[in-house]
Automatic annotation (TrEMBL):
It comes from the Bacteria. Belongs to the bacterial solute-binding protein 5 family. The keyword Phosphoprotein does not apply. It is found in: Periplasm. Gene3D superfamilies: Dipeptide-binding Protein, Domain 3, Periplasmic binding protein-like II. Pfam families: SBP_bac_5. InterPro entries: Peptide/Ni-bd, SBP_5, SBP_5_dom. This is ABC transporter substrate-binding protein.
Length: 551
């Protein structure tokens, strides 16, 4: 449809994500065959209705310009359109940009914007909004994009529908981050000249997407309504999205089973409940829609801790954890052991020939003895406090698993729980922790989602999900920066291979599991999973089948 322009961009895109079709676990839809909602049922689908959605935990903000936490992005993807979206093969598809061209030398990228698009307040969307967002947000305060766009030296807007990026050096991952949450475009007329971090519109966002923000009742719900002026004719189909906060896992499962909730992403119920719910004809359990993410669960060591600053102790802890058992017992097989901070789903960049830490209690004990940390009369070497990501029971149970694993080698662990805001402040701002578990999305290129956990340039910024360990390594920093501007894909692979070797030897952050998230939703819905970035994209295609209006 985009002719030569899309083929040029597609050629570069294919160089970045070689074999990406094989990089994700096969799509799984339990209890329904793919495509079985077509035919007569699809013809009976109706416009309108309210879709009730689980949002857990409650977001800190609703705008993904500075905070990229999971719940923020789940909501924001419905409010903000990006320049592109991504299909199941992670190829960029038109959104606010109808087409684009990449110069052969990679130093110019031109976007041709869709005409007639309006912000939710009625003001026209234009190239000026993209230029301002890139210069004032993506390059300055966005946690992932600062490094990706640092080589953009100039943004030209010859007219309201054209944006030209001029780069000093190529930045190959750019085309992988341009959806609504990856590179959020903010309304210049509401943000220019303000403190972006504290702008009130962060919590009452104005976007160009299919749904308009209406209300955020803290502790209860976020409500979005249909955008009557949306640029894609006939969409969205639904009248309203109601994101509900239900902290208790059992209550979430009950609400889903009763039909009070029709869509619940990100492992909304315990795995045992997922198995049970999948057997009900009224529900589906689906792992599609997470392909863009490549999520990896990891353990961050605070390398300034009196014990954990010794690499022998960090390696000992790595040997003490049976990651295969963790995947099976805690995550019910919806995960597999990770051997690198670059997940195996990133086929082009993943390095399987790395220093490894196989489960070996004797090796862990020997390393701790070598570090001079002998057991006392009670068999205890030292005590650590563990903070787990407060995103549900899976993370708490992971913390309990780690506690038992470390107890076997003489390390006592105290588990500490808190809400999301407190967790972020403790780990990334105050650095008042010993070790913590969280997860990051790697995305299709390590430059997007992996290196932020290791680059020392993030230290002292208090930015969530960036270098929680406090790691500093000059060679790793240099490789990160070199890969960010390297235009030769083969050289970038070599740079990331060396990077992985360094950080896995130093192990400031221990990869635990490659996660495979699932969603649960009503069988009375169609169009709920349409693309590879679905969970962070919009529900503009979703609609009820045989559902009365005002559902």
């Amino acid at each position: 449809m985009m002719g030569r322009d899309s083929r040029v961009a597609g050629g570069i895109r294919r160089r970045l994500v070689v074999a990406v079709a094989a990089m994700m676990t096969a799509a799984v839809v339990v209890g329904v065959l793919p495509g079985s909602m077509g035919g007569a049922a699809a013809q009976e689908a109706r416009q309108g209705g309210t879709l009730s959605i689980i949002l857990q935990p409650e977001p800190v903000t609703l705008t993904p310009s500075t905070n990229m936490a999971q719940p923020t992005q789940v909501v924001a993807g419905n409010i903000f359109d990006g320049l592109v979206t991504y299909d199941f093969e992670l190829k960029p598809k038109p959104a606010l940009a109808e087409r684009w061209e990449v110069a052969p030398d990679g130093l110019t990228i031109t976007f041709h914007l869709r005409s007639g698009v309006k912000w939710h307040d009625g003001k026209p969307f234009s190239a000026a909004d993209v230029k301002w967002s890139l210069e004032s947000v993506w390059k300055t305060i966005h946690p992932r994009n600062k490094s990706l766009f640092e080589n953009v030296t100039q943004v030209d807007t010859p007219d309201d529908a054209t944006v030209i990026l001029r780069l000093s050096k190529p930045s190959l991952p750019i085309l992988s981050v341009l959806n609504g949450v990856g590179a959020p475009i903010l309304p210049k007329h509401l943000y220019e000249g303000t403190d972006v971090l504290n702008n009130p519109y962060n919590n009452k966002p104005v976007g160009t997407g299919p749904f308009v923000f209406k209300e955020w009742k803290r502790g209860e719900f976020v409500e979005l309504t249909r955008n009557p002026d949306y640029w894609e004719a006939g969409k969205p189909h639904l009248d309203r999205l109601l994101f509900r906060m239900i902290p208790d896992a059992a209550a979430r499962a009950a609400a889903i089973e009763k039909g009070e909730i029709q869509y619940a992403p990100y492992n909304p119920v315990p795995f045992r409940d997922a198995e049970r719910l999948a057997k009900l004809p009224r529900l589906k359990v689906d792992t599609r829609g997470y392909e863009w993410l490549s999520p990896l669960l990891y353990l961050d060591f605070n390398v300034e801790n009196q014990y954990l600053k010794d690499v022998r102790v960090r390696r000992a802890i790595a040997h003490a954890i049976d990651r295969a058992a963790l995947a099976k017992i805690v995550w019910f097989g919806y995960a597999k052991p990770a051997i690198s901070p670059v997940p195996s789903s990133l086929v082009t960049f993943h390095n399987a020939k790395l220093p490894q830490y196989p489960f070996d209690v004797k090796k862990a004990e020997a390393l701790l003895d070598e570090a001079g940390l002998k057991r006392d009369a009670n068999g205890v070497r030292f005590t650590l406090t563990h903070d787990f990501l407060p995103y549900g029971d899976d993370y708490r149970r992971t913390g309990e698993f780690l506690k038992q694993a470390l107890k076997r080698v003489g390390i006592e662990v105290t588990i500490r729980s808190q809400d999301s805001a407190a967790f972020i402040k403790r780990v990334y701002v105050d650095r008042d922790f010993d070790f913590a578990i969280s997860y990051n999305n790697a995305f299709p290129d390590p430059q997007i989602g992996v290196v932020r956990a290791f680059w020392s340039g993030w230290l002292g910024t208090g930015t969530p999900w960036t270098n929680g360990s406090g790691y500093r390594n000059a060679k790793a920093d240099a490789l990160i920066q070199e890969a960010g501007v390297e235009g030769d894909p083969a050289k970038r692979v070599a740079q990331f291979n060396e990077f992985q070797d360094i950080v896995l030897s130093d192990v400031p952050s221990l990869p635990l599991l490659e996660l495979n998230f699932f969603s649960v939703y009503s069988a009375d819905l169609e169009g709920i999973v349409e693309q590879g970035d679905q969970v962070y994209s919009s529900l503009k295609n979703a609609r009820f089948v045989n559902a009365p209006k005002g559902n």
